[in-house]
Amino acid sequence: MIRALMTAASGMKAQQKQVDTIANNIANVNTGGFKKSNLAFRSMLYQTYREPGASTNASQMNPTGLQIGSGVEISGSTKDFRQGELEPTGAPFDLSIQGEGFFEITLGNGEVRYTRDGSFRRDGNGKIVTPEGYPVTGAPEIPPTAIDVIVTEDGRFLSRNSEGEVPAEIGKMQLFRFANPSGLKAQGGNLYSLTASSGVAVTTDPGNEGTGIIRQGYRERANVETVDELVGLILAQRNYEVNSRAVRVSDEMLQQVNQMIR
Predict the structure, then answer these.
(1) SS3 of 104, please?
(2) Rounded to the nearest 5°, which phi and psi values hold at 84?
(3) First CA to last CA across the chain, in angstroms?
(4) 105 within 8 A of 114, measured Cβ to Cβ
(5) Numbers of helices and strands, H then E, in the chain
(6) Cα separation of 110 and 190, whole Å?
(7) What's the rounded Cα separation, in Å, for the pair 175 and 152?
(8) What is the value of pTM for the model shown?
(9) Are 122 and 94 in contact (CB under 8 A)?
(10) DSSP-assigned letters across all residues of 214-239
């Protein structure tokens, strides 16, 4: 009965973390380029009372044995990097990636981060930066005289200084991809840092090797399906209730034992 209390408590803790994860997904449903998280569960250690296949007599063996588990635990969380819906904004420096790939950002301290959120801006020096002012790797400086900027699907930046002028190329942006994007470490602010699990960042021209193309004037929405998250939330709540019921049953059984002793 004490085992049942601890086992049920592990289930309640696991479902609480599931609710925390779902709540974070729902909270970021309007966050540009956000990727939902999923939890994975695994059973904890088993206590073996009888080994499967143990001999019961000279010619027979136990077909199943007897093992009792000790609960559940979180084995890990993964980021779901499936494509989010592309929402048209019309802003010239809103860039989205249709396919795999990441933009590279350089922080103020020189550290490098990666993001799917292409809500970029042009600063006073003509640099393409994030809303926080971090420069985007490979993005060219926009001339102060430019009246129009075109970003092609393959990452080329074209600008013109007057009406009727043929746009001229001023630079080209590259994208970055990883062997295992789920191994990236989320740093908040829609930024990720590479890890040993993600592998090194591979620089690729947009449209090559499955990296994806760049769409100007579009913003990638979060890949969170609210209905699915609400269903998962209900399931987590019901599982939590069932585990709490197991705690109550175990407690009632212990009370019965105590009354017998009296």
Answers:
(1) strand
(2) -90, 165
(3) 19
(4) yes
(5) 2, 19
(6) 18
(7) 13
(8) 0.85
(9) no
(10) EEETEEEPP---HHHHHHHHHHHHHH
Count Cβ atoms below 10 Å from residue 237 Cβ, excluding itself: 14
Amino acid, single-letter form, for residue 59 = S
For the chain, the domains span: 2-81+224-261, 86-220
- What is the token pair recorded at 77? 């969380």
93 and 129 Cβ atoms separated by less than 8 Å: no
- Give pLDDT tens digits for 22-54: 999 999 999 999 999 999 999 998 888 888 878
pLDDT digits (tens, 9 = 90+) for 246-260: 988 888 888 887 777
Whether 225 and 35 have beta carbons less than 8 Å apart is answered as no
State how far the Cα of 183 lies from the Cα of 197, in Å rounded to an integer: 5
HSE-up (13 A, CA, CB side) for residue 117: 23
Pairing of strands 95-98, 46-50: unpaired
Structure tokens at 143: 């001339």
Tokens 């590279």, residue located:
104
